[in-house]
Write a structure and sequence with these properties.
Blueprint lengths: L7 H8 L3 H8 L7 H14 L5 H8 L4 E7 L11 H16 L3 E7 L16 E5 L5 H12 L4 E4 L7 E3 L3 H14 L5 E6 L5 H17 L4 E5 L5 H14 L6 E4 L2 H13 L9 E6 L12 E5 L1 H17 L10 E4 L7
Parallel strand pairs: 1-2, 1-3, 3-4, 4-5, 6-7, 6-8, 8-9, 9-10
Antiparallel strand pairs: 10-11
Helix pairs in contact: 1-2, 1-3, 5-11, 7-8, 9-10
Length: 338
């Protein structure tokens, strides 16, 4: 963290411009109006702002290489990481290569700390992918962004970081509407407790919006046990079944939980989709292989990857970026075919 140190965001606030405009002015870009340039320079002098030398040098001498960092939890380990992230890695590499960039991939947890690829001159900046629960890691990358290092991210909502996410509310609502359309009238939602993970809060919100609009009773169950998502799905589904509720639909806010729920339903002899229809979220490959295959909201990973790379280039050059949510697509499979 850079507590007590003036950043480009401080200069931007005083000058009444964006951080990217400050970056363009202080790095000699000509695409800035003269009056705005004067305001930024005066604000920088008044605050005593000195741009990060390493970051400035990197912007002048690009490596055409992106450091792709995948965040993971120390307790769960790399092996339990959601396959969504490992698949997204490949799409980011393809998108970066199409723009003439190489990709160096590394893994980072709270205990590991940053591997320093940018400061060692091996990359121009970072694309970071991970969930909101990796708070310590995200704070480190916010500090780097404050110092002028190009950083874009997937999986975190932040005004200080150029990050994007899925259109979670709308996509979840579409999935629950599908359950209603196939005849479900008592639908439960299974989810990790959101905490710092905004995507789960948004997906639960999407579920609730449909239940309210349809005049149906909500049943939301959260898992607080720090196991992997698949085991959370197993445990939550068992708990719901033990409550004796007469359900005919389940919406799980991630696919691994949906797979776990399916396992618990098989254990109890509940027919899917005959007695209970099941839908997940993410579109991981494994949902095609279960019996029955699982209906899911498939995230558009090629589009996500292209957006991350184009935003990285935009942040690096001080140009406009697009942080609007990326739409997903409902893929209907056997778990909801009645």
């Amino acid at each position: 963290m850079n507590s007590g140190r003036v950043t480009a965001y401080d200069v931007a606030g005083l000058a009444g411009v964006s951080q990217s405009t400050v970056s363009r002015v202080l790095n000699g870009k000509t695409s800035v109006r003269p009056d705005i340039r004067v305001r930024v320079e005066e604000a920088a002098r008044k605050l005593g702002y000195i741009a990060n030398a390493t970051a400035s040098n990197l912007r002048r001498n690009t490596t055409r290489t992106i450091a792709l960092v995948v965040l993971y939890d120390d307790q769960e380990g790399i092996g339990s990481l959601n396959p969504f992230y490992t698949t997204l890695q490949g799409h980011i590499s393809v998108a970066a290569n199409a723009e003439g960039y190489a990709v160096l991939t590394s893994w980072m947890s709270e205990k590991m700390g940053d591997v320093g690829l940018v400061m060692r001159g091996l990359a121009d900046g970072y694309i970071v992918i991970g969930s909101g629960r990796d708070k310590v890691c995200w704070d480190r990358f916010r500090a780097l962004a404050d110092d002028g290092v190009p950083v874009v991210g997937w999986g975190i909502a932040s005004q200080r970081l150029s990050a994007i996410s899925a259109a979670n509310v709308e996509a979840a609502a579409g999935a629950v509407e599908h359950l209603v359309d196939v005849g479900c009238r008592a639908i439960a939602c299974l989810s990790p407790r959101p905490g710092d993970q905004r995507q789960f809060a948004d997906r639960v919100e999407g579920y609730r919006s449909v239940m309210t609009r349809r005049g149906m009773e909500e049943t939301v169950r959260y898992c607080d046990v720090p196991t992997d998502r698949l085991e959370q799905g197993v445990n939550l589904m068992r708990e719901v079944l033990d409550e004796g509720r007469q359900l005919d639909g389940i919406f799980a806010t991630c696919d691994l939980m949906a797979i776990g729920a399916l396992r618990a339903l098989h254990e109890r002899g509940v027919s899917v989709p005959g007695q209970l229809a099941l839908c997940g979220f993410d579109g991981i490959y494994a949902t095609r292989l279960t019996n029955p295959s699982i209906t899911t909201v498939e995230q558009d990973m090629p589009a996500i990857a292209r957006r991350l790379v184009s935003n990285f280039i935009g942040v690096s050059s001080g140009e406009a970026i697009d942080t609007s949510p990326v739409p997903g697509k409902l893929v209907i499979r056997d778990s909801t075919r009645r």
